[in-house]
Design brief:
It is built from 16 helices and 14 strands. The chain is α/β, with parallel strands linked by helices and 433 residues long.
């Protein structure tokens, strides 16, 4: 099938590469010439495991191409995926200006029947707006479909190639059959294609992300109570997750959620509720708990060292909002590091993939280490903020010689408390006294 994907961010690039890998002819369109130049040379501007190999392979097989010519790409394609950004507006709503602008461009380029697919995360009613814009500008027949993405950064390629479900929101049998044909190679093992009305599909993405955000905030709130009453949050976690009705995903106490999806989607759903006179009390609480969780971690540090951190040095392991990505959008590390800097501290940082992103955020306000151990040199304490695999089993004897004080603040509950106490460390974690 001939497909155009408009937008080459996390979603668009993964979608384009994976669709090409199943034998489709895919053109990825973007208006950023610098990014397109890099992609054509085989350089991937984001870190996503497996993506670089997939892009190079399919470009080499002439199934995947990159272009800034949206008009030509649309004319050559049967299906057009809109995968541009929907950034958070000042009021918390999703900013649809890029989606609607792309819809208008598609409409003016149409030369026959097309399926236009909303792949970007968009609020309920967006497909109607896209349909109205296209209808105003073309006499050709078309269908608009909602096909929300459920890609986890750091695992996006595998999520697309082996989805647990594909949601298709459609009011057209013809468009539904085309979408089912596109996704049939990915679902040969019996995973589900779920067909529903368009508005329900649009809502499904926000509902899924907000529910996961609620689980994270719920566990963090329980962990905070555990500290107060002397319970162990890890034991509580094990106790509840063995209940099959609850499950064991997204229930690890920590610093809360970040990234490009959960914070934005939660706020967008809250705004949608407000616009429709529907109080989203649980989701509002999840958002509030998430914000407070980072502040509570800083309070652990100031409780140990005092409110004035002038002259103190903190070594930070992990900057990305989660492992296996370089994305720092809404990352807990940003809030925590900024708070430490405001209190007068010096901060030395290391992350396996997010150092370039960090330099855009912090500039020269922090010290950038070449490796994890260098970040701890002569620091008063170590802070673990992202649970990268390479941080899981460090050389604690080496760490003890680097730190001025043998103090570790673990924001991801990654280490064995008994072992660290035996080695003479002060060890602070989430949900344990």
């Amino acid at each position: 099938m001939k497909i155009t994907v408009i937008g080459t961010g996390y979603v668009g690039l993964v979608v384009g590469a994976c669709l090409a890998d199943m034998g489709n002819n895919v053109i990825c369109v973007d208006n950023n010439e610098e990014k397109l130049s890099l992609l054509k040379k085989g350089f991937i501007p984001i870190y996503e495991p497996g993506l670089e190999e997939l892009v190079k392979s399919n470009v080499g097989e002439n199934r995947l191409a990159f272009s800034s010519d949206l008009d030509s790409a649309v004319k050559k394609s049967d299906v057009c995926f809109i995968a541009v950004g929907t950034p958070q507006d000042e009021d918390g709503s999703a900013d649809l200006q890029y989606v609607l602008a792309v819809a208008e461009s598609i409409s003016k380029a149409m030369n026959g029947y097309k399926v236009i697919v909303d792949k970007s995360t968009v609020p309920v009613g967006t497909a109607e707006k896209v349909r109205e814009i296209i209808k105003r500008n073309t006499s050709f027949s078309f269908d608009v479909v909602s096909n929300p993405e459920f890609l986890k950064q750091g695992n996006a390629v595998d999520d697309f190639l082996h989805p647990d479900r594909v949601v298709i929101g459609s009011d057209s049998e013809k468009a539904t059959l085309i979408m089912q044909e596109i996704y049939s190679p990915f679902l040969r093992t019996g995973n589900r294609i779920v067909v529903m009305d368009i508005k329900s599909a649009e809502m499904t993405k926000y509902a899924a992300n907000s529910f996961l955000a609620v689980k994270i905030s719920f566990m963090n709130e329980i962990a905070n109570l555990c500290e107060k009453v002397g319970a162990d949050a890890e034991m509580v976690r094990i106790g509840i997750t063995t209940d099959s009705r609850i499950g064991n995903k997204f229930l690890f106490p920590g610093l809360g959620y970040g990234g490009s999806c959960f914070p934005k989607d939660v706020k967008a759903l809250i705004k949608t509720g407000a616009d429709n006179d529907c109080e989203m009390s649980i989701i509002k609480s999840a958002d509030l708990v998430n914000k407070l969780q980072r502040n509570l971690f800083v309070e652990k540090i100031t409780k140990r060292f005092g409110e004035d951190l002038t002259g103190m040095v903190f070594g930070v392991w992990g900057l990305a909002f989660k492992p296996k990505t370089d994305d720092m959008r809404e990352a807990p590390a940003i809030t925590i590091i900024n708070a430490l800097l405001e209190l007068g501290a010096k901060v030395q940082v290391f992350d396996p993939k997010a150092m370039d992103m960090a330099k855009r955020i912090f500039a020269d306000r922090v010290i950038y280490a070449d490796n994890s151990y260098e970040a701890l040199n002569k620091a008063d304490a170590m802070l673990l903020l992202t649970e990268w695999n390479e941080f899981r089993r460090p050389d604690f004897d080496r760490i003890s010689t680097l730190l001025k004080k043998k103090v570790i603040f673990d924001g991801r509950n990654q280490y064995n408390k008994s072992r660290l106490l035996e080695k003479g460390f002060e060890y602070y974690q989430i949900g344990c006294v």
